[in-house]
Every structure is written in C-alpha cells, then in structure tokens.
Amino acid sequence: MSSLAIRDFASPICDLSGTSILVTGGTGSFGRAFVETVVDRFQPERLIIFSRDELKQYEMAQRWSTKDYPFIRYFLGDVRDAERLEMAMRGVDYVIHAAALKHVPAAEYNPFECIRTNVHGAENIVQTAIRTGARRILALSTDKAANPINLYGASKLAADKIFIAANSLVGGADTRFAAVRYGNVLNSRGSVVPYFRRLVEEGTRTLPITDPRMTRFWITLPNAINFVLSSLASMRGGEIFVPKIPSMRITDLADAIGPGLEHEVVGIRPGEKLHEAMITSDDARDTIDLGDRFVIEPSTVMWERRSFLEDGGRRVPDDFEYTSDSNEEWLDLEDLRALL
Predict the structure, then answer these.
(1) Active-site residue (options: 144, 156, 244, 273)
(2) pTM attached to this predicted model
C-alpha cells in the first residue's frame, strides 16, 4: 500500500487538554470522528458540539452522554444565526468550522441556501470569534474550492478568502484564522462508497460510473482528523494547508466494492469535474512544500507572520499544480480493498 495512503499526519498535534473547543457541524461524519478522537486523546475543559440537527445530537448523546463525559456540551444552533453562535463561542479557545452545505447538485438547485450557510456562515464565524476572543479558528475547505465550477466550490472559495482576510481584522488580539483543504473522505456519508455498497447489497448487476476517466483525491477519516490537529498546532494565520494524499480512479473504486460488476456510464452531473485540483498554478507562487503537506501562504498580509520558508519549507515551481490526475501517489485496486 502507498505510504501516503496511510500517513497519519500525527506529529506534532495540538494538545487540546484543558482547553475549550467548539465544533460547528459537530454531528456530521467529521464531527463525530473528531469528538471520538478528542475524548480518546485529550482531557478538554469543554467540547461544544454545535449543529442544527436535534436528532443527530440525541444520537450522539447516547454514545457520549454529558453524565459520563461532563465536558461535552450539545448546543443546537445554526451558523447562519450570529446571535446563537456568539452564545456558544463565549470562552472558547479553538473553533473547528466543519458546518457546510456540501451536496453539489443540491447547492446548484438551492443557491441561496448554499450561500447563506457557506458564505454568510463563514462571516458569522469570523465576526463572532473576534468578538469573543477565540484564539485559533480552523475551517474545513475542499478541493472543489480550487478553480471552482460549481456553486458549492465557489462558496467554499469565498469562505476561504473570508478566513484568510479575517487575520487582518483582529488588531492586536491573538486570534488567528486558517483553513485545511483536502479531497473526498473515504466512507463518509457524502461519499460514493456507501451508495455503491447499498447497490451491491440490493443485488445490482451494474454500478453507475459518471465517466471512466474520472479521478479523485482520497483521505481516510482518521487521517483527516490528524491532519486537522497537526494543522491547528502549526497554523500562524492566513494559511491553507493541503495534505499530500493519494488519488484513485472511480473505476478502481467500483471494482473494489463490486468485483465483477459491469459499469454503466451515466455521465457527469451538473457542476462536477472530471478531475479535482487542490493547488492551481496560480496558487503555486505562494505554495510551500513541507514534506507531508503543502501550505498556501497568504499573498498579502497586514500582520506579523513568520513564513514556513524560515523553518525549512521550500517553494514549489511556478508552474506547479496538484491535481488528482497528475498525482504521483495512487491507490490501486489492492489498496482500495484494504482500506475499504
């Protein structure tokens, strides 16, 4: 298996013991895994799960009850609601912003809702964090924000810009904002894996393939958590951290889940790319290679900030691109079967 396929991005990580953490979208796939990791590794003062889904919060409380885990708080709210968000963020040290509308076709059909959550929600996070004095705010972005062709990607690009620019608004406070950008998360609820598995369980004879040439970046959920924790430890303000992760072909994924099944080509959906990018050639001039990841540094800064070049990072070539079809690391059929 590719060494990058199992890289855990675990060192150094941010020690969250004794701190207060707020996770927006805390009942999603990432949020649940993040809570499990925090409970297992750290002893926080408070861990606030902020989301608008009362059923999912109830289900999480069956797993992590406030009786057994008295530092956990379940806080119903929406990132669109700045007043409610401010109530939740009082006294918080770290904010992990995972809340978003992520379904590409749904965002195309419901553009106003996408903008309200992904863009206005990001603005609310920034303004609330500055008012409440939160120390570090790390937003989860997506490969679809690089050269976006759909509204979801465009809204996340706008959110990235909001978080980067926020560092210029904090004055003398110790509040800093950054983002992480990674690809599809293996086995998350929004990935194609559960869909393929359901079709196989139902006895399908074919699996729908949008385009046999399609490639994607893939990361496991535990690796994504560790990448967030290590980025939280090293962030200085204004960065977009990009992990070095493998690519896979959609046809190999289908063969790994449904061996022997025929592929039915159904065509690319509206707003969907054939290949994804995480770093474009326009980003390259500000991109530094840190070994296990890249960091896109802010092109314009209005605060004191130490560049990663001073700590051994090296600039990538001016024409550098990091795309799923030109990646040097690939998950083959054997790798995918092992991960699945």
Answers:
(1) 144
(2) 0.94
